[in-house]
Amino acid sequence: MERLIQERLVVGPLQCNCVILGCPATREAVVIDPGDEGKKIVERLKRANLTVKYLLHTHAHFDHIGGTKEVKADTNGTVCLHKADDFIYKMLPIQGAMFGMRRFGMAPAVEKFVEDEEILAFGEHKIQVIHTPGHSPGGVCYKLLTDDEAVYTGDTLFNMSIGRTDLWGGDSDLLLKSIRERLFVLEDEITIHPGHGPSSQIGIEKHENPFLI
User: What is the pLDDT of residue 53?
Assistant: First the structure.
């Protein structure tokens, strides 16, 4: 099996890490958190000759969904989100306005509500949903099950930090519980790719993250 195509694009004023994962054999792909700059994401997909199967969201804050409409219109990928974040997703224009950005219209309708431990296939590769509420009620991480295992943690767990919990439905105790019981049970060597900033490893965060030791 050829190695997975993996590309990270840093998009929007809050520097969201949008990730493209593509199967080299079938050219089928997923896009994780198309947060802004939809044209930039679409151009990268076209350059790699990839067809989008799923638009996967780790949660529904505006900086992770702001480019979804544009990418959906061009690729027709299935829009995916955990149902517990649907009310936040529908507030995209309000969210943007609260942060001084009034350019966001309504996001396209969610077409698939992902569930905890559900496995999604794209081409010859698979990714698993891990529900990690706390940053938001429907926050999830996505664990790559093929190639080098990795977890795309959104705003649940960062390199030496954790997600904020002062927005809609945030819960600091639940966030810490999610990290400890859903992420820190994974192998120490597994790489984490957060929604903002640099990557890390489960073991490093377990033993050195100041919010968790």
Answer: 98
First to last CA, the chain: 39
Tokens of 92: 């995209």
| Cβ neighbours, 10 Å, residue 200 | 20
Q: Which domains does the chain have, with CATH numbers?
A: 5-208 (3.60.15.10)
How does the average pLDDT of the chain come out, rounded? 97
Q: What is the pLDDT of residues 153-199, one digit of tens each?
A: 999 999 999 999 999 999 999 999 999 999 999 999 999 999 999 99
What token pair was written down for 205? Answer: 């965060």
